[in-house]
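Retry 2 of 3 after timeout on previous attempt. Resubmitting structure tokens to design endpoint.
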């Protein structure tokens, strides 16, 4: 039997790799979005995940049936947040912005986790968390405005960037809901396909509309290869890893590891997609990562802020 320390070490190792797997979603998605309509891509992704992990639902069928019968609306909410908003809408956003921008904006999800958790549980946000949140949100502003304050005066925003802001908030809510007692009785490998199936059902009507309206469908080997990469790495590996980390470490701690998204995601975007790294991206990385680190690191690591927070 493994020790608690060993299990926690394993969770940390998994969470170091999880942001890399998440980053591949934007890389694969950006690469195939011209060949596959966004809702169709999300439907194929989560339908495949549900089918691939169906045996684990059967193995844990008693708990799974209890969850479906007793908390179907809650499952639907998880599917909406994790698969519809953070799935199809993200692919829609990638038609309008770059994977680099999306990666940097998505990195702020730990800050939203802290803020939403504070509001819903009536917890006081300390000076350190407030300062870090302000820095991270300023980083989002720099990226959305592309380093140009005149864009704010003219209300000239990129729609894709704004969608990614909404997706970061949705992901924070999804992360916190995974800690609900309603799902703790279901194994990790059985929970994901249940949520994926709920998401696929919600995506199906929109995917059908795309099909009958003549939207792009996957017909090439490269398109199907990109979908396979999204299913294997960005879905199975990433979501299972994240759920494992949340259950072992808690949502706030697991969320800390998401600030590894910038070096992973931006590096992959530049290397494989040939995207240009601008000066405002560099400033955005400093603000976003600095803010997330300041807001989420243990107080003992930042004694000055920690001491103020305890007052």
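Retry 2 succeeded. Sequence:
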């Amino acid at each position: 039997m493994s020790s608690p320390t060993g299990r926690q070490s394993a969770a940390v190792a998994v969470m170091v790799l999880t942001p890399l797997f998440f980053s591949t979603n934007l890389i694969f998605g950006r690469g195939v979005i011209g060949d596959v309509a966004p809702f169709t891509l999300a439907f194929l992704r989560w339908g495949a995940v549900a089918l691939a992990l169906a045996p684990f639902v059967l193995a844990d069928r008693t708990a799974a049936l209890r969850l479906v019968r007793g908390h179907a609306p809650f499952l639907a909410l998880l599917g909406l947040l994790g698969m519809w908003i953070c799935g199809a809408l993200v692919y829609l956003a990638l038609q309008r912005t770059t994977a680099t921008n999306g990666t940097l904006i998505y990195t702020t999800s730990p800050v939203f986790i802290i803020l939403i958790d504070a509001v819903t549980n009536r917890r006081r946000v300390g000076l350190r968390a407030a300062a870090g949140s302000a820095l991270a949100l300023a980083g989002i502003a720099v990226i959305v405005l592309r380093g140009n304050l005149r864009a704010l005066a003219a209300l000239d925003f990129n729609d894709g960037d704004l969608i990614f802001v909404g997706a970061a908030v949705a992901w924070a809510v999804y992360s916190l809901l995974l800690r609900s007692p309603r799902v703790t009785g279901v194994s990790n490998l059985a929970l994901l396909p249940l949520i994926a199936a709920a998401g696929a059902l919600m995506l199906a009507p929109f995917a059908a509309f795309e099909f009958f309206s003549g939207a792009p469908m996957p017909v090439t080997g490269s398109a199907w290869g990109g979908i396979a990469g999204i299913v294997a790495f960005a879905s199975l590996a990433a979501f299972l890893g994240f759920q494992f980390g949340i259950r072992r470490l808690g949502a706030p701690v697991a969320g800390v590891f998401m600030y590894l998204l910038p070096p992973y995601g931006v590096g992959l975007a530049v290397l494989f997609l040939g995207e240009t790294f601008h000066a405002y991206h560099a400033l955005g990385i400093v603000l976003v990562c600095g803010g997330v680190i300041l807001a989420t690191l243990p107080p003992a690591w930042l004694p000055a802020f920690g001491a103020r927070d305890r007052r």
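Attempt log closed. The chain has a mean pLDDT of 85.
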